[in-house]
Design goal:
The protein has 481 residues and is an alpha/beta fold. Helices cover 38% and strands 20% of the residues. Its EC number is 2.4.1.21.
């Protein structure tokens, strides 16, 4: 363990991390935390699988651990760094050297995902127990179901290294049949309600929630919501039972990557030079073939029911009639992709759609949009609204999770106090979204007040400093305890 006054060590275990591999916001968080925690006196190493291309980005990398058999093939841990982040990449070709994505290929989820990520968690626990190349963590921080067995193995083995389990999205629970127990190296004596058993199946997320010394969620509101059945998705009882160790800590954004003054994808602007944002708006309309006289909204999202995508058809017509327009970037369920294409066909020149994901385009959209729509039914934290605030693109969000924690809704009281930073609506249904868009049109018409609200959001503290301090304090408390 780290000595008195030494840099303390934490092993962060996850299935993805920027800049190596990303499918969602989890990767942004895992990639940003090491630099943020360094300022708090913590050395964080990130352990992820060595998917194709990962080792090349870490070159030169050093082998620090190996085994002849990790669930059916040899494996080794390679230590390298990228972008200032120290990475332990688990090189197990039989599990991770695949042409598809991290979790699935064109035919669907990999049938052995349970074994793949159980192996990742098992190796993380070995590192915590034994150390590698003279490095042993003081704390293990596991992210989502893919790493949920890391705290569990530590508890089952009696390893005195405290652990933190972070829920980025309770919807994904790592649930598989009990027949996989042996292949996942799980001890049968813990197949019970106090362990990893969940309605007759295995849940790796539940395993982590039951075993971890502390549980965090990515916003305070989400921590409260998870105690209710509509958000807890069957695990609300676990969160209620462990409420004393549950902490809601907001995500931040990488303010160096998301900076409208230095972003290489856009024409720079700032709160002090807000009028320069209009050049990005014109460029965005050209890119999406739009001609919008009123507020130009953007939507950058997975196209799924969770994100409220199905609410758009009934809400957009009035918005367009009032002069608004919408640029959409995303991919997801086939029906949702067809639906947004249908909106573009129905409202040519006012609704534009690009299916897929393009990081550069997303930056241009945040720079050029007047508002960003986030009509999610649940949202653990959300980064989209934070990017919107950072770029003076006013968020229109549902009153849930991190959206409610980060956006101050326009109301007579907040406007009189000069505090509003966006539009917040509830409940999450078609009528409420339609009313929110009507409110957006009204607010946008007062150009002076609109600019003031947008600039207020740009000045908000959205980086990782405060959140990193809370994580550091949590780690310190676990070590002291």
């Amino acid at each position: 363990m780290a000595g008195e006054g030494a840099m303390k060590r934490v092993l962060s275990v996850a299935s993805e991390a920027v800049p190596l591999v990303k499918t969602g916001g989890l990767a942004d968080v895992v990639g940003a935390l090491p630099a943020a925690l360094a300022g708090q006196g913590w050395q964080m190493r990130v352990m992820i699988p060595a998917y194709p291309g990962v080792l090349a980005k870490l070159a030169p990398a050093e082998e620090v651990w190996k085994t002849a058999d990790l669930g059916g093939g040899p494996a080794r841990l390679m230590l390298g760094s990228v972008g200032g982040v120290e990475v332990l990449a688990l090189d197990a070709p039989h599990f991770f050297d695949r042409a598809g994505g991290p979790y699935a290929d064109m035919w669907g989820d990999y049938g052995d995902n349970a074994e793949r990520f159980a192996a990742l968690s098992w190796v993380a626990a070995v590192v915590a127990r034994d150390g590698v190349a003279g490095w042993r963590p003081d704390v293990v921080h596991a992210h989502d179901w893919q790493a949920g067995l890391a705290p569990a193995f530590l508890r089952y083995w009696g390893v005195a290294v405290p652990s933190v389990m972070t829920i980025h999205n309770m919807a994904f629970q790592g649930r598989v049949g009990a027949a996989k127990m042996a292949a996942m190296r799980l001890p049968p004596e813990h197949f019970n309600r106090e362990g990893f058993e969940f309605w007759g199946d295995i849940s790796t997320l539940k395993a982590g929630l039951m075993a971890a010394d502390a549980i965090t969620t990515v916003s305070p509101r989400y921590a409260e919501e998870l105690m209710r059945a509509e958000f807890g998705m069957g695990l609300e009882g676990v969160i209620q039972a462990r409420a004393g160790v549950v902490h809601g800590i907001l995500n931040g954004v990488d303010t160096a990557v998301w900076d409208p003054e230095t972003d290489p994808e856009i024409q720079p602007f700032s709160a002090a030079k807000f009028s320069a944002k209009s050049r990005n708006r014109k460029a965005l309309q050209r890119e999406f073939h739009l001609d919008v006289p009123g507020p130009l909204a953007i939507l950058v999202s997975r196209l799924t029911p969770q994100k409220g995508i199905d609410l758009l058809p009934g809400a957009v017509a009035d918005f367009v009639a009032a002069g608004g327009g919408l640029a959409i970037l995303g991919s997801g369920d086939p029906w949702a992709e067809d639906m947004v294409r249908g909106l573009a066909a129905r409202f040519p020149g006012r609704v534009g759609v690009k299916i897929g994901y393009d990081e550069g385009l997303s930056h241009r959209m945040f720079a050029g949009g007047d508002a960003v729509l986030v009509p999610s039914r649940f949202e653990p934290c959300g980064l989209t609204q934070l990017y919107g605030l950072r770029y003076g693109t006013v968020p229109v969000v549902a009153a849930t999770g991190g959206l409610a924690d980060t956006v101050i809704g326009a109301s007579p009281a907040t406007e009189a106090a000069g505090a509003a930073t966006g539009v917040v609506f509830h409940p999450v249904d078609e009528l409420a979204l339609r009313q929110a868009l009507r409110r957006l049109v009204t607010l946008h018409a007062d150009r002076k007040a609109w600019a003031a609200m947008a600039k207020r959001g740009m000045k908000a503290a959205l980086g990782w400093e405060a959140s990193a301090a809370r994580y550091a304090a949590l780690y310190e408390g676990l070590i002291a305890r």
